[in-house]
Amino acid sequence: MTTEATMRYYRPTTTAEAVAALAGEAGTARVLVGGTDLLVALRHRTVEPSLLVDIKRVRDLRPPIDVESRAITFGPTVTMSAVAADPTVREWFPSLAEAALVVGSVAIRNRASLIANSANGSPAADTAPPLVALDASVTIASTSGERTVRLRDFFLGSRRTLCGPGEMVTSLRVPRPADGSSSCFLRMTRRRGVDLATVSVAAVVERDGRATAGLGAVGPVTLLGGPTGPVALWSEAEVENMVDELLSPATPIEDVRAGQTYRAAMLRVLARRAVLCAAGRRDAREPIRLTQEGDS
User: Fold this and answer.
1) Which of residues 37 and 130 earns the better pLDDT score?
2) What is the maximum alpha-carbon separation in the chain?
3) pLDDT tens across 135-179, in order?
4) Spatial separation of the C-alpha atoms in residues 65 and 83, rounded to whole Å
5) Plot region of 10 (φ>0 → left; ψ -120 to 50 → alpha; else → beta)
6) Per the count of CB atoms within 10 A, which of 107, 167, 187, 260 is most buried?
7) Could you please report the per-residue DSSP string of the chain?
8) Sign of CA dihedral 42, 46, 48, 53
9) Crossing angle of helices 260-284/94-101, nearest 10°?
10) 53-81 burial, b for 16+ CB within 10 Å, e for fewer?
């Protein structure tokens, strides 16, 4: 005869209470905020935590969107819909707004947490490539205090991050881009709407033609390409060389979503489009698209 373990629910009101509860469960607790991934995993029993720590009523969390002169800091409760709709996010980080716009469905975006989308550590997370390309950092809280790491260093492997047992990510900071730069996000999926990315690219192009790229679903973690040296973007040959450099970290594999050769080819197509799109926005300030031309 077998007995099922009982899962408990806890709603703390301070960060200290939340991390103490997480630390007390020896890695078998989970943080609940948006719940769009966690509740599915619970339903399918792919995770079976002993404790759910619901942080939506924690009073001392960072506000959902805190705009400062040199950065925007996002709190754990900020939703994808709020990110995509915020005018400063759309002006400073168009690639992040575009990525938030294609996460799941409208109902999912109204619940899904930006921080949780990255903190889960999925290499196919839509918002991770723009955040990595934009040099975002996360702050991790525990009973010992706080530490801040770059998001590019936060990922250790598929679904593995620097956020260990008894810890939780309490904020995500994205520095204001340099004047004259802009960004663009593109992805390809097997179908429009609720699907994981087959491949995704976020490009950031500076005033002088330097570029960086966040690469999704082409490695065990979200990858950073670049930065490249200054490039004359009117030159086809220089753009192709830039794309080569940006894509050098990619190690696409074959899985149920795409073959390795196809994924590598589409990565190159999207990277080139994203670079040229970002370059075109540097002065023109092209409006954010509501759909992605790379979706399929």
Assistant:
1) 130
2) 71
3) 999 999 999 999 999 999 999 998 899 998 899 999 999 999 999
4) 8
5) beta
6) 187
7) ---PPPPEEE--SSHHHHHHHHHTTTT-EEEESS-TTHHHHHHTTS---SEEEE-TT-TTSPPSEEE-SSEEEE-TT-BHHHHHH-HHHHHH-HHHHHHHHTSS-HHHHTT-BHHHHHHT--TT-SSHHHHHHTT-EEEEEETTEEEEEEHHHHEEETTEES--TT-EEEEEEEEPPPTT-EEEEEEE-SSSSS---SEEEEEEE-TTS-EEEEEESSSSS-EEE-PPPP--TT-HHHHHHHHHHHTTT------SS--HHHHHHHHHHHHHHHHHHHHHHHHH-PPPPSS-TT--
8) negative
9) 130
10) bebeebeebbebbeeeeeebbbbbbbbbb
> At which residue do the structure tokens 């086809």 appear?
236
The residue written with tokens 């409006």 in the block is 287
159: region left, alpha or beta (phi > 0 left; psi from -120 to 50 alpha): left
Residue 291 tokens, joined: 């759909």
Q: Which two tokens stand for residue 45?
A: 């029993």
CB 137 within 8 A of CB 70: no
